[in-house]
Amino acid sequence: MPAAYDQLLAHHREVFLLGSTSALLGWDQETYMPAGAGDVRADQLALLARLQHERVTDPRVAEWLAACEGDAQVMADPDRIANVRGLRRDHDRATRLPAALVAEIAATESRAQQEWAQARARSSFARFRPWLERMVDLQQQKADCLRRDGQSRWDALADLYEPGMNAADLEVLFAPLRQRLVSLRERLSGGDRPDDSFLRVEIDEARQEAFVRAVVTAMGFDLQRGRIDRSAHPFCTGTGGDVRLTTRFHKDNVLDALGSTMHEGGHGLYEQGLSEQHLGSPLGEAVSLGIHESQSRLWENHVGRSAAFWQWCWPVAQQHLGVACAGHDAASVHRAANLVQPSLIRVEADEATYDLHVMVRFVLERALIAGEMPVAELPTQWNALYGEYLGLQVPDDRRGCLQDVHWSCGLFGYFPTYTLGNLYAAQFAAAADRALGGLPDLLRRGDFATLREWLRREVHAHGRRYDPGELCRRVTGAPLSSDAFLTHLDTKLSEVYAL
Ligand code: ZN
Fold first, then answer.
1. Is residue 469 part of a domain?
2. Helix extents (H) in 274-338
C-alpha cells in the first residue's frame, strides 16, 4: 500500500489530467471546432467538470490529507508541505459547496452568458437584468458557503482568484492610485499628443502574423511545447509542454496584434516556466490570477511599450511589414504605442486609464454582492462612475455596464486581479532592472533570455509554494504597492508627452 502522500499526489494528477483535457476542448471550441459540435461539446465539458469535482471532493482525499498532516516525515519536507497545503485548500473549498449549488450555478452561467450576449447586441439592460439578479443571488449563496470567521461575501469570492486578497487591503492600494491616475489623465491632456497615424496603416494579415510570431519567438515562447492560433478574443490556456496561445488581427492596427500576442505570450512563458518535475501538483501550478496577469503585463507593457524594445523591434517590423513602415521610425512608433486616450471599453483601454475601468467594477460588484445596491441601479451607478473616473459620458449600456462577459459567468471578485497584475508587473520589472543591471540595455540588444530566465527563477519555478503577497516580498524585497507602477507611468509618459 503506497503511503498517503503518494496516493494523494497520484489522485491529484488525475484531477490535473481532467482539467487539462477540459482546457484543450475549450481551446478547440474557440479556434477550430465546427459550429455544429456546440451541443456535444457542452456535454463533454460538463462531464469532465463533474468528474473533476467528484475527485477533488472524494472522501479519501480528506483521509490522505489528515494522514499527511500527522506524518512528521512528510511535514519535514518543504516541497511536500507546500503540496499538502495547496491540496488542503482545494479540497476544503470544494467540499464547502453543495453539489446541487455547483450544478445550478453551472447551468445558470451557460444560459446567462447567452442572454448577456443577446442583451449586449441589443444594448438592452432590461433583458439581462433578471439573469444578473439570479446570478448575484447564486454568488451570494456560494459566498455564504465559502466564507469563514466574519469574512465578507465579496472577500470569500475574491479569495478564489487571489489567495489572501480582501477588499479592505485593495481599498488601501486603490484609493490613492485612483486619484493619481485621474490627475495623470488630466495632466496628459495638456501635453504633446503622440502622432498615432501608424495605428491606422493597413497591413496584410499574413505579414502581421509573421511579425508577431517573430517577436513572441524572440521572447522565448517555445513552439515545440506550444502553439499560436487565432480566435475572436485572444487567450492562453494549457500548461507545461502544451501551451496554446491565440491572437487576432485587425487590418489597420498591427500594434493591437503585437500587444495581444506579447500579452498572451507572457502568460504562455509563465506556464512553460512552471516546474516540469512538479507538473500535476500544486508546486507545478500558477499561484494566482494576479501573478499570472503580472507576467502578461510585464511583457506587453514594460517590454513591448518601452523605447529600448522599439530600438530592437523596428528593424524586425520593417523586415516583416515592409512598405507600411515608410515614414515612421522606432521613436515615433514607441510614442504611438503609448497614446493615452480615455475610452469607454475596458479591453481597448491604454496603460494609464485601464485601471480606472477596473476600479468602477470593483466598487459596483462589492455593492451588488453585499446586497447594498439593487441590480436595477447598475446602469445609473456605472455611468456616474465613468463620468467621475474617466471623464466620459456613457451613451448606451452596450458600451456601458453590458460590455464585459464576467458577471454573466459568475465571476465576482475577479476584476481587481487585472489591476493587481499591473502593480505586480511594475514591481517585478523594477526588481529585474536592479538585479540585471538595467533592463533597457538588454532589450535594446534583443536579449530577452536574461529577463525570461530571471522571471522563471524568481516567479515561475515556485508554482504555488508561496502566497502571492509572500512571493512579491521575496522577489522585490517589499510588499505590493502602487509606487513602482506610478513611477513607471509618470517617467515614461512625461517623456512621450514632453511634459
Ligand atoms: Zn491576461
1. yes
2. 289-297, 307-321, 330-337
The alpha carbon of 265 and the centre of ligand 1 are apart by a number of angstroms equal to 10
Q: What pTM was estimated for this model as a whole?
A: 0.96
Question: All 3 cell numbers of residue 261?
Answer: 500576442
Q: Which residues are close to ligand 1, an ion, with C-beta < 5 A?
A: 293, 296
Whether residues 371 and 473 fall in one domain: yes
Same domain, 220 and 301: yes
Looking at the domain assignment, is residue 214 inside a domain?
Answer: yes
Domain identity same for 193 and 334: yes
- 132 and 185 inside one domain: no
Whether 159 is in a domain gets the answer no
DSSP type of residue 299: I
Domain count for the chain, please give it.
2
The CATH number of whichever domain residue 339 belongs to comes to 1.10.1370.30
Residues annotated catalytic, as ranges: 264
Are the CB atoms for 333 and 314 separated by under 8 Å?
Answer: yes
- How far away, in angstroms, is 293 Cα from ligand 1 center? 5
Quote the domain boundaries for residue 362.
167-496
Q: Residues near 251 by Cβ (< 8 Å), separated by ≥ 6?
A: 202, 203, 204, 205
Cell 449563496 sits on residue: 141
pLDDT for residue 30: 86
Q: Does residue 179 share a domain with residue 122?
A: no
Asked if residue 162 is part of any domain, the answer here is no
One-letter amino acid at 52 equals Q
Band of residue 1 on the pLDDT scale cut at 50, 70, 90: low
Question: What is the whole-number distance in angstroms between the Cα of residue 98 and the centre of ligand 1?
Answer: 31
- When pLDDT is cut at 50, 70 and 90, the band that residue 244 belongs to is very high
419: Cβ–Cβ under 8 A, 6 or more apart, which residues? 174, 177, 354, 355, 358, 359, 362
Cα–Cα distance list, 142 to 101, 130, 138, 155, 364 (Å)? 8, 18, 6, 12, 19
Asked if residue 5 lies in contact with residue 74, where contact means CB atoms within 8 angstroms, the answer is yes
Q: Say whether both 412 and 339 belong to one domain.
A: yes
pLDDT of residue 388: 94
Task: Tell me the residue length of the chain.
Answer: 499
Centroid of ligand 1 to alpha carbon of 62 (angstroms): 34
Q: How far is the CA of 214 from the centre of ligand 1 (A)?
A: 20
Q: Are 297 and 267 in contact (CB under 8 A)?
A: no
**292, 332: one domain:** yes
Do 318 and 387 belong together in one domain?
yes
Q: How far is the CA of 163 from the centre of ligand 1 (A)?
A: 18
- Per DSSP, the chain holds a count of helices (H) and strands (E) of 20, 3
CB 369 within 8 A of CB 157: yes
Beta bridge pairs of residue 229: 246
